[in-house]
Amino acid sequence: MRTLIIGDVHGCKDELEDLVTQFAFVRGKDRLFQTGDMINRGPDSLGAVKLGHQLGIRSVLGNHEARLLRIFSKPELGRTAKDQFYLDRLGADAEELFHLVKEWPLWIDDPDFLLIHAGVQPGIKHLAEMSPKIVTTIRTWDGYGENLDNSVDPPWFDCVHWPKTVVFGHWALGGLVIREGFRGLDTGCVYGKMLSAWCPEENNIYQVNARREYSRLDPQ
User: Fold this and answer.
1) What is the dihedral of CA 216, 179, 204, 211, to 10 degrees?
2) Which of 25, 35, 123, 176 sits between 20 and 30 A of 51, alpha carbons compared?
3) Residue 6 — φ and ψ, nearest 5°?
4) CB neighbours of 30 closer than 8 A, spacing ≥ 6?
5) In the sheet that 177-179 helps form, which strands lie side by side, from edge to edge?
6) Could you report how far apart the first and last alpha carbons of the chain are, in Å?
7) pLDDT at 219 > cutoff 90
8) What does the pLDDT look like over 57-102, one tens digit per residue?
């Protein structure tokens, strides 16, 4: 048995298929996981999620899925213009996507690794005590959890010691992270870069090129 943990897909269904093919996935033998943010920004969010379901991929909740859940938790008249813009980007598939992702967990605590979308909250030892907002959006740590994306603050993984390897996504600008105890797999496929994955048993990185740039990466 091998395991493949795939980074942020953002609707890049074709690249997801390319990556699984490159890995030579054997159905019923190998395991597939994914870091969340399977949806939005890219060309085929629904296709990517359905492909994930067909392949048996286990995904955690990313900030884009979490936002979709928050929007659908509101009455339609209570949705903001930003909420509606987000739904418009997903188009007619938004409600079906909501039903497909609403049961995704915030993390998967495997015996060999911890899979979480953005990162672990520094200073807290138990996952159940961590803020859902922080574990789906953290990039840097200010000591308080108020500003989670500030270039003058250290990356969150400089502030954490965890008993197993933490595998995460969410930070395309940060690129591939390969360091003791941490694997960061968001390499900006939707921004025209690469879709990346890690196989723990081989300690090997698998990557495929994006077929094109689908969205612009905001350096801010």
Assistant:
1) 0
2) 176
3) -100, 140
4) 1, 2, 3, 4, 23
5) 107-109, 113-116, 165-168, 182-184, 177-179
6) 40
7) no
8) 999 999 999 999 999 999 999 999 999 999 999 999 999 999 999 9
The answer to whether 122 and 157 are in contact (CB under 8 A) is: no
Phi, psi angle pair for 203, to nearest 5°: 50, 50
Residue 146 predicted with pLDDT over 70: yes
Determine contact, residues 19/212, Cβ cutoff 8 Å: no
Q: Using H for helix, E for strand and C for coil, what is the string for 125-163?
A: CCHHHCCHHHHHHCCECCCCCCCCCCCCCCEHHHCCCCC
Asked whether the beta carbons of 197 and 8 are under 8 A apart, the reply is no
Task: Give the global pTM.
Answer: 0.96
From residue 62, give the alpha-carbon distance in Å to each of 7, 142, 168.
Answer: 11, 21, 10
d(C-alpha 21, C-alpha 51), whole Å: 13
- Kindly give, in sequence order, each residue whose CB lies less than 8 Å from that of residue 16, ignoring residues fewer than 6 positions away: 6, 9, 48, 51, 52, 195
How far apart are alpha carbons 89 and 215 in whole angstroms?
A: 12
Q: Which residue from 110, 116, 106, 109 is spatially nearest to 170, judged by alpha carbons?
A: 116
Q: How many residues does the chain have?
A: 220
At 15, is the secondary structure helix, strand, or coil? helix
* Angle subtended at Cα 95 by Cα 93 and Cα 100, rounded to the nearest 5 degrees: 90
- Return the exposure string of 13-28: e unless at least 16 CB atoms fall within 10 Å of the residue's CB, then b: bbbbebbbeebebeee
